[in-house]
Amino acid sequence: CVPKPDATVAQLQSNIDYVCSNGADCRPIQAGGACFEPNNVRSHAAFIMNAFYQTNGRNNFNCDFAHTGVITSTDPSNGSCKYLS
Questions:
Q1: Which of 30, 52, 53, 59 could anchor a disulfide with 63, C-beta 3.0 to 4.6 Å?
Q2: Any idea what DSSP says for residue 43?
Q3: What is d(CA 4, CA 33) in angstroms, rounded to the nearest whole number?
Q4: Contact yes or no for 54/22 (Cβ under 8 A)
Q5: pTM of the complete model beyond 0.70
Q6: Could you tell me where the beta strands, DSSP code E, fall in 1-85?
Q7: Cβ atoms < 10 Å from Cβ of 2
Q8: Cα 50 vs. chain centroid, distance in angstroms?
């Protein structure tokens, strides 16, 4: 589950805020975390949206995020940042 290309920064920040305020472990996208770099909203949202999708049943609706998410078959992990799968 990753952001759609046309999702705005404001929408993606809202997704991060929603997931992180509902008990998700958001430490990986915080300074010093394995997924902090690249330090931008789209990358952080991709990690958090995928974590939410993977830990909440992997249903299509768990990746909707008000029509800003899309399920991908490509693993977006990079370097030390490993996405749940």
A1: 53
A2: H
A3: 24
A4: no
A5: yes
A6: 2-3, 69-70
A7: 22
A8: 5
